[in-house]
Amino acid sequence: MTQTPRPPLDPDDLAALGEASTATITTQLFKHGLRNTFLAGLTCVTPDARRMVGEAFTLRYIPAREDIDTLEVYDDYDHPQRLAVEQAGPGQVLVVDCRGQGRAAAAGNILLTRMAVNGAAGVVTDGTLRDIEEISRLPLPVFATGAAAMTNLAQHHAVDLQVPIGCAGVAVYPGDVMVGDADGVVCVPRHLVPVIARTAREQELQEAFIVARVAGGAPLRGTYPPDEATRRAYDESRGALPATD
Ligand SMILES: O=C([O-])CC(=O)C(=O)O
Ligand SMILES: [Mg+2]
């Protein structure tokens, strides 16, 4: 299908998003009116992998049908699932729409090993994965709802690459930026990346200051959220630079 050209992402913005928590990013998106950006119910199944940040490369599954989705379809190296695995490259996160259905796996260890070797930035699905023990050792951030041994053709039929999808109830457009950490995965609409990157960085700095005060015994009142005096102390700690919102 034809791809709409997308303006390139600024590496500094990606770095800032990669350093911000998903909690911070969801709050910043909320401030911009977006409340449905967190892919609830997914956990990171590769706990030793780096933090995840990258552009969404989408793959859409529909329900399988027994007369179509036979095991022989995998003899075709151009099966859409296989194309997605080969094509999602450096800087890209494969986001797989399983319609929240997990009785058969979205993918398994061989496919995700291929993605790790290709330098993909991560894998996200609102379904399950097979070979989960081996996957858990991959150096690739992977998020899913859990494990299922059954191969994906039993429940899923791969139809589209790089189209808008729903994943865990969130709209994900190709090129949106996916960020993942221990809390889960958030989708940042591409056009909001510069502003969210900047304000998320600022929130992280302010929260580091606040948590140090709370850990040191400060009460919530006056500290969290910060009142005028705490904000002034924070600004002074930052070399008197005024906080941006
Ligand atoms: O058949 C599948 O779902 C794929 C699989 O097991 C793998 O990638 O190792
Ligand atoms: Mg396997």
TrEMBL record:
Its cofactor is a divalent metal cation. It is an enzyme of class 4 (lyase). Its EC number is 4.1.1.112, 4.1.3.17. Residues 228-238 have a biased composition (Basic and acidic residues). Gene3D superfamilies: Ribonuclease E inhibitor RraA/RraA-like (3.50.30.40). CDD domains: RraA_family. Pfam families: RraA-like. Residues 221-245 are annotated as: Disordered. It catalyses: 4-hydroxy-4-methyl-2-oxoglutarate = 2 pyruvate; oxaloacetate + H(+) = pyruvate + CO2. Homotrimer. Catalyzes the aldol cleavage of 4-hydroxy-4-methyl-2-oxoglutarate (HMG) into 2 molecules of pyruvate. Also contains a secondary oxaloacetate (OAA) decarboxylase activity due to the common pyruvate enolate transition state formed following C-C bond cleavage in the retro-aldol and decarboxylation reactions. Belongs to the class II aldolase/RraA-like family. This is Putative 4-hydroxy-4-methyl-2-oxoglutarate aldolase. It comes from Streptomyces zaomyceticus.
